[in-house]
Structure formats: structure tokens, C-alpha cells
Amino acid sequence: MINIVSHFAVEGKVLDIRPLGNGLINDTYRITTEGENPDYVLQRINHAIFTDVDLLQKNIEAVTSHIRKKLAGDPQLERKVLRFIPLKDSGKTYWFDGKDYWRISVFIPDAYTYETVNPEYSRFAGKAFGEFEAMLSDLPEKLGETIPDFHNMELRSRQLKDAIAADRAGRMAEKEVREIAAFLEEYDYEMCKAERMYRSGELPKRICHCDTKVNNMMFDADGKVLCVIDLDTVMPSFVFSDFGDFLRTAANTVAEDDPDVEKVDFRLDIFEAFTEGYLEGTASFLTPVERENLPYGALLFPYMQAVRFFTDYINGDTYYKIRYPDHNLVRTRNQIALFKSALSKREQMEKITSGRPSLN
Ligand code: GN1
Ligand code: MG
């Protein structure tokens, strides 16, 4: 890896490179350098998933330089937006070693990521993701879709149907698997509503982050949001992407792969706090239709994630990293439990987003 790092314009002698974080797609490492020089984050980009790395890095450069302009003059600027390091001999921010694609960004010190957050942090996160979308609302460049139709529920549903029909790993023989397929099918039409609203012109696409898992946001030591990270999927999408995916991870009482589904519960206090922050951050652009449908967004993401994990299970685990054979099935059960819990709280969510006092 030292050899890979040597192609980038990094400062200081590399002392150590070790794994960082727990993303399901890319491989991430922290580079420690000697003395006062900054540390760095090295990533191997999952090229099977992000097939156009040049487009991917162009998107990220457009997004980070736009945010940099918006935050000009802020003494904390370098802590609030990622900086990618170019190669020594060209302006490119990625290196192809003949097999893998690599990139390096500056490591932000004294910044923390969390797997769970309290309502106060959720409010900060809501405001930060809302402001992130607001800052990108006048981005001059047209961003490409790094994964085409990434959050298109109609496509995800088609992929599940194709996987079931092909049954490549022979997993449709299991009774539980067939029951899960039947359950997901029941909500299929309703959950594809965003795409229909888009076609009829009721719902716009915005530039969204599209991977607002709670651990994709860094906080400083005081719990204030610093920086939105993991920018691979920033692309045009519905606001539900960012709203729903944060809640999918933050409002769940347990991790997305906790096998004990009895413990899964969708936390309304987190929903309420995040919504408050999000409505503040997006006040400059959010339409009444988008706002009214935020509870649908909170349902859509556990549902879509269940469909995606389940599709991967049926396909024989080709997409997400797994740590044991049934991992994707365990994740699916967990996300279905979360979806059911959120469904049972739909009315309360609607009261919160419409500004009426909640039931409890
Ligand atoms: C992946 O890269 P990571 O681990 O932050 C996935 C998300 C899923 C998430 C589920 C490019 O995110 O869409 O919601 O796992 N990213 C991609 O944990 O598919
Ligand atoms: Mg991540």
C-alpha cells in the first residue's frame, strides 16, 4: 500500500496504514504520517459497484469544491468538507494500479462517528443533511448517477423479482424465504409511489447524499456536526433518500444486522428531533408535497433496504460484504421488523411532519 500512496501528493513520511471504519462497500484505511503532517484516509473503491470511477471522482470534486466555496471564510472549513489529494503527476484524484482504484483524502482529527445517536444529535444531523442539500441546490455542474437508478424503488423491486425467478443460489426452497417474498410483494405498489409522483410532475429530484447512514456523518467533541462523509452516492434523487436512510439507521433501537428482531423498534423521539432539524435545514426549498410525504420516506427506506438485502441473499451474496452465511437474511428480517414498527407509527409521524402535536 505504501507503493500506492507514493503516487499521491501527500505530505510527510508514512508510518502506518491500518483499517478504518466498517463500510459495506469500499475498503478504508487510515494512513498515519510522521510529525506535524496530516494523516490521511486511503480507500480502495469497489470497482464492481462503482463502474465509472472517473465520473465518481468528478462528482465528488464538483460537490466538495462547491461546498468549499459556500463555506469560504469559515475557520473550520478544512474540518467541514473533505479534501481529496491529487496524484503527483496529474490533477486526477484516483490511482489505478492495474487492478484496483484508490483515492486519498485528508483525515480530519478529533472527529467522531457513531452507530447510535440521541435526539439532540439527530436534530443536528437533520439540520446538517438538510443544509447539505440546500448548499447543493445551485450546483452548476450536472452530476452523473454513479449507480444509475440507485434509489429507484421500481428498479429494486424488479431486481428482486428477477432474483426470485432465477433463484441462482437455490434459496427459494426455504419456506421463510418464500414468506418474506410474499410479505414484500404486499407493499410493493405503495412503496413505488415516489416514482409515479415523479412521472406525474408532482415530485422533484434534488441533489441528495443518498447514503445518510448515521455513521456517514462526523461530529466534533461537543457533539456538533462537522462533516458529511462517504460522498460516492451524491446524485439526483428524492429528498426521501436522505431523510429516510438516516432514520433507517438512527431510529432503529438496534443495529441493522441485529438478529434479535424482538428488540427492533422505530424510535419516534429520534424521528421528531431529526425532522425538526431537517425542516430547518431545507426551509429554503422543500415543497409541501415533499414535506407531506416525509413519513412515506421513513417507511420507504427500511422497506427498500429489506428488498436490497433480500435480493442479495437470493442471488447468493454478491453485493454486500457478509461476515457469516445468513448475514443478508438476518439483515432482511431486521429491516422488515423496522418497517413494520414504522408502519404502526405512521399516524404519529404524519402529525409531526404536518406540525400538529403528536399523540404521545
Ligand atoms: C452501503 O457504503 P456503506 O456501507 O456506507 C450501501 C447503502 C446501504 C448500506 C446498508 C453504494 O453503504 O446503499 O444502505 O450499505 N451503499 C451502496 O448498510 O450500495
Ligand atoms: Mg459509510
Quick overview:
The protein is α+β, with helices and mostly antiparallel strands.
Number of helices: 13
CATH architecture of the largest domain: Alpha-Beta Complex
CATH C-level class of the largest domain is Alpha Beta
> What small molecules does this complex bind?
2-acetamido-2-deoxy-1-O-phosphono-alpha-D-glucopyranose, magnesium ion
Give the structural class: alpha+beta
The main β sheet shows up as:
5 strands, antiparallel
Query: Helical content, roughly?
Result: 40-55%
What is the ordering of alpha helices and beta strands?
HEEEHHEEHHHHEEEEHHHHHH
Structure commentary:
- There is one protein chain.
- The protein is an alpha+beta fold and 360 residues long.
- It has 2 domains: 2-106, Phosphorylase Kinase, domain 1 (2-Layer Sandwich), CATH 3.30.200; 119-354, Aminoglycoside phosphotransferase (APH), C-terminal lobe (Aminoglycoside 3'-phosphotransferase, Chain: A, domain 2).
- It is built from 13 helices and 9 strands.
- The strands form 3 sheets. The chain has a 5-stranded antiparallel β-sheet. A two-stranded antiparallel ribbon has the order 6-9.
- α4 (119-135) runs antiparallel to α8 (240-250), α5 (153-166) packs parallel to α11 (294-314) and α11 packs antiparallel against α12.
- The longest helix has 21 residues, at 294-314.
- Bound molecules: 2-acetamido-2-deoxy-1-O-phosphono-alpha-D-glucopyranose (GN1) and magnesium ion.
